[in-house]
Amino acid sequence: MSVSHPFHESTPLTQADCLLVLARKNKEFDFPEHFHREYELNLIVNAEGAQRIVGDHRHIISDLELVLIGPNLPHVWKRNVCKNVNVKEYTIQFHRELFSDDLLQRKALHAVQQLLHDSSQGVAFSKEVILAVYDKICELAEKSGFDAFIQLMEILHVLSKNRSEYTVLSSIKCDALDKRSLIMNTAYSYIENHFHEKITLQSIASFLHMTEITFSRIFKQKTAKTFVEFLHDYRLQHACRLLKDTQYSISEISLLCGFNNQSHFNRLFKAKIKCTPREYAAISSDVSVV
What we know:
Helix content: 40-55%
CATH superfamily of the largest domain: Regulatory protein AraC
Distance between the termini: 30 Å
Shape: globular
CATH class of the largest domain: Mainly Beta
CATH topology of the largest domain: Jelly Rolls
Structural class: alpha+beta
Number of helices: 11
Radius of gyration: 19 Å
Largest sheet: 7 strands, antiparallel
Order of helices and strands: EEEEEEEEEHHEHHEHHHHHHHE
Number of domains: 2
Strand order of the largest sheet: 11-10-7-4-9-2-12
């Protein structure tokens, strides 16, 4: 997909989750420039020569890369002159609400507070710091529940210890939301709360006190998808989680995700996920949500 501006990504995290861990081999850097409401910590291994773009910052990376991205900051990694096809990537995403202002103002967390503040411009870490947290990040994909949350805290603690060991990247802070982004956040919240019900373009535009045409235009500009495409993708994301983490039948999952017609659900799932729901449930996933 090619877009001329960053699009607003909706991550699989729900309000009930603490963090998401994605571990994968990345042969292609084909995900377009984007931003999202969550913090993101990216560890990339064996991608020397790839290009990092964070806000207005551009840089050719080495074989070991660790960057913390703040909420709403556009970012992307491009293959550029990287020739290695055995690139490993570990992505950790966590809610901005996970650490309240009251908590971050405690003395023990002042350094973490500063790190999260700096991440609004993107932060890249020194090789020494990367090596100090490398194993902890790799292990995080195998942990769950409270253990995973504590491991994330330990990682952030190590990363924040010495401000001289990381570099602030972009000259522009992107934490603040413009009017259209605020509209989108409200739209996302509406979808999160009602995706299992019947949602139409008319109903969500009416909820936002907008015309369907205006809402559709803003939504397409921010997500590079139509509203219907986005809603289908969101429902399928949730279906994937239920297939992985629950014992519901496929027909039950179809209904729980807002699909009243199981045949329609199966067709969409096969077209987007490239396998049937039953096949997906049978394979192990590289995504861990805590």
